[in-house]
């Protein structure tokens, strides 16, 4: 007679060989939470110092372009015509905003 065992979800306890336990897991999570955040803030302030805040603000408009390109390259997603038109509008707007005007009215 076969006995069926109920299978449940087991969580790692950190008692296996080579494991650092709960403390090292907390340290790893804290490191992953704090180090990238510090690097991002440092990069942000460095970009503001070098290129100015207006450049950084315009660079945020390019995030959807990167998302569409990464989806196409990594996930084999096919961008729709609407997405391509939207990307063209975004890129045109950023280029126009970064182009210095020939003469300013006085």
Please give a structural write-up.
- With 106 residues, this protein is mainly α.
- It is built from 4 helices and no strands.
- Helices cover 65% and strands 0% of the residues.
- The chain is flat, with a radius of gyration of 25 Å.
- The chain starts with 21 loop residues before the first helix and ends in an 8-residue tail after the last helix.
- The model has no long low-confidence stretch (mean pLDDT 81).
Topology overview:
Elements: H1 22-51, H2 53-60, H3 63-75, H4 81-98
State the helical fraction.
55-70%
Residue stretches low in confidence (pLDDT < 50, at least 5 long) are none
**Ends distance:** 96 Å
- Global morphology: flat
Rg estimate, integer Å: 25 Å
Strand percentage lies at under 5%
> Number of helix segments?
4
The total beta strand count reads 0
Question: What structural category arises from helix and sheet content?
Answer: mainly alpha
| Pattern of helices and strands | HHHH
Mean pLDDT, to the nearest integer, reads: 81
* Largest sheet properties: none
List keywords for this structure.
mainly alpha; 65% helix; 106 residues; 4 helices
Structure summary:
With 106 residues, the protein is mostly helical. The protein has four helices and no strands.
């Amino acid at each position: 007679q076969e006995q069926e065992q109920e299978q449940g979800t087991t969580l790692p306890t950190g008692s296996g060989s080579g494991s650092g336990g709960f403390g090292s897991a907390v340290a790893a999570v804290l490191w992953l939470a704090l180090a990238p955040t510090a690097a991002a803030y440092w990069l942000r302030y460095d970009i503001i110092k070098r290129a100015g805040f207006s450049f950084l603000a315009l660079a945020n408009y390019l995030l959807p372009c990167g998302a569409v390109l990464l989806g196409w390259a990594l996930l084999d997603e096919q961008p729709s015509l609407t997405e391509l038109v939207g990307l063209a509008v975004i890129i045109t707007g950023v280029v126009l905003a970064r182009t210095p005007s020939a003469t300013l009215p006085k």
